[in-house]
Design goal:
The protein is mostly helical. The chain contains 9 helices and no strands. It has one domain (3-255).
Length: 260
Amino acid sequence: MFPIELLIVAAVAVLAVVVHLLVQRRFEYGVLSRHNDVAGFLLSVVGVIYAVVLGFVVIVAWQKYDTAKHDVESEVAATIDLDHAVTGFPAPLRNRLRKQLLEYAHRVVSDEWPAMRAGRLGLAGSPVLEAVSTEIETFAPQTMAQADTHQIALADIQRAWDARRERILQDEPSVPPILWMALVAGAVATLGFAYLFGVENRLAQLVMTAIVAALIGIMFVVIAAFDSPFRGSVGIAPSGWYYFFQHAAQIDPQSAPGRH
């Protein structure tokens, strides 16, 4: 848990405790304790329903985050495979393609990643990858070896496009506003029923309220973080592309200047 997330969770807990304190001051213990049986039964029903919904949303958000990481790794792997495949092309085309692939990687890291972290659509690398696709698709093999290499390169560039598209789509929120509204309403209902209990030790009750509110706040933070996989303190880093830079530098030490 990071400082900003801790502040959010603490703010939720404090707000819940303040509201509960106001309720305690408005209603005496004897008045609230009369509803303990009914409130306990209803709270168990509401709590189970809310826990199921909240857990489901957390799992969906986590799966999205995990899928986004896989898409990034697939895009890097396809680019590296393509860089290997073009070794079978004639020297002028091979050198040009490798230079374009390196330029694409630089644009992804230096332009697209900051855009995704800011919640914007990052498309700076599309023209470069489009140029690579055109070069490969219009290449006319002269030998059987070049024909085999051409087929491999076509498959690799298609994989790169697919992974790139999936990576960009994963930056879109998957939890719609109406579901956020339902989650907030469920949290309010759960805490609202907790306010209806009459407990003789009111300080202990406030502590329990703070714990419940903090747990709900943590779940909200987790959902928000995983639903935006390239933003926030747990945002996916472009570390895989740095491996590609190292790979390119091993092949041609002058091909990887300090632009990344």
